């Protein structure tokens, strides 16, 4: 994986902005600690930072076409590199190395933008054609890799991170009313096309954009489509198994050490099992990693959203697979302190300590690995979350993981936002309308399609952003096999009765792998990424917020009703359900305020 950035300016000489290029590269250094590159002509400036995973000698960037006219900078991995290379060789292309970057460049030379629908992978890239003065930006189908842009008179700025885009003097850290409402009422999620800052957009997943001196266009090369599911149940079970195994196998290719995240849950256990088999066939031992918190054995509290802890299940999988396992234990004070760099890593207030714990975890894993597999996205695709199964939530007219708009509004100072509930509702309804349906869908299957798209565009997008930003901040590449678009397409059209086979979350996946994992793992009740229950952490965050509220220079302080927040500090257990996702309760509200304060100060955010 890597970091990319740059700009095109048809009105001013890009060569006069070399200092901007250096600033952009510095923002991308964590994503690409191993090498850097730069291209510049009168109209375009491209920068690249590289994390070396495939073809150390032959994958340097920017990468030039044989005639020197087309230049590529690329962040990602292609998982069908071999197939595309074979096709291109048959068409007369010749390659200098074995990197997917070179294959991508030649695919574009052969098929232009029609190449994008042939790609299986996670990626964000920019292509500059000198003679045509044409810039192409593209992002993978599920948005695993980020890509932000800002339009400016006479051109466009782009980057893997928001901070990269903000390096250009034409991009300012201004947040308007919609941006503030997004942060306060939808956060840590954000609208799919939004970068929160007024000028900054996120290129949508499955889209590519083309900039020429005459025009700017943005169009989809992929979207979810509704089809009749023609497979019977045994075929569906077999096909689900086949797709997951194939995606995992493709993503085990690496020229550097590879490991797996292992929580003892179904998804990470499947990937670890498949990887361990592959390693064993080569006479090697897979390394696995898990995260825990100091004294969680003492303070863990069961809930509908987190019914059990991970430790015994992790031990069961390690014993079954014989992996070289490493458990990272996080201290409460370190977790609180890491809220600040986690904000910097995401460029926005994020998932509070759900982010900061992953940041610390990935920094520890990086000492022993460069690439990891992770089980994200199976829950969104196969109905793993409680809100798919609780009828009292399923048909509610709101985002099911963030039902607490009234709670959020009650914590804000008077007049901070206008029409907050209507703002949230408009985004919710627009997303539901994007869910393609069939006339034959039952009311429940139609609703499940809406839930699928809601989760894909919002909740899964937030988790993917978290995973990319927290891992790449330490130069750790994390791959997510369940995000293979073939799995997504198949799952979208699978009847709910198949997905929830035996009345269980992810029932079809459990059935597909029931003979390859310990029985207790296969039928374990869904439990999310772990969080700390330590009272010291809650106190640390509450005291930090009190300091923010006492700071006359804190913009974040002015946004909140201090008395309402203080009441939560006095009774942290009063919050009955999470205010976001499955884990974010009272301590995470305090942590989010800490991240807001950091964001305003670090990015010098101006509200308009």
Walkthrough of the structure:
With 608 residues, the chain is an alpha/beta fold. Helix content is 42%, strand content 16%. It has 26 helices and 19 strands. The strands form 4 sheets. The protein has a 6-stranded antiparallel β-sheet. A 6-stranded antiparallel β-sheet has the order 4-5-6-7-12-13, covered by helices on one side. Strands 16-15-14-17-18 form a 5-stranded parallel β-sheet, with helices on both faces.
Write the layout of secondary structure elements.
Blueprint: E1 2-9, H1 18-28, E2 35-40, E3 44-50, E4 63-64, E5 70-78, H2 81-90, H3 100-111, E6 121-129, E7 134-139, E8 148-152, E9 155-159, H4 162-165, E10 174-175, H5 177-186, E11 200-202, E12 207-211, E13 216-220, H6 233-250, E14 258-261, H7 266-281, E15 287-293, H8 296-299, H9 311-321, E16 324-330, H10 332-337, H11 339-346, H12 353-365, E17 371-373, H13 378-382, H14 386-389, H15 391-394, H16 405-411, H17 420-433, H18 443-472, E18 477-479, H19 485-492, H20 496-499, H21 507-512, H22 519-522, H23 535-549, H24 555-559, H25 562-570, H26 586-602, E19 606-607
Parallel strand pairs: 10-19, 14-15, 14-17, 15-16, 17-18
Antiparallel strand pairs: 1-3, 1-9, 2-3, 4-5, 5-6, 6-7, 7-12, 8-9, 8-11, 12-13
Helix pairs in contact: 2-3, 5-17, 6-19, 11-12, 11-26, 12-18, 17-18, 23-26
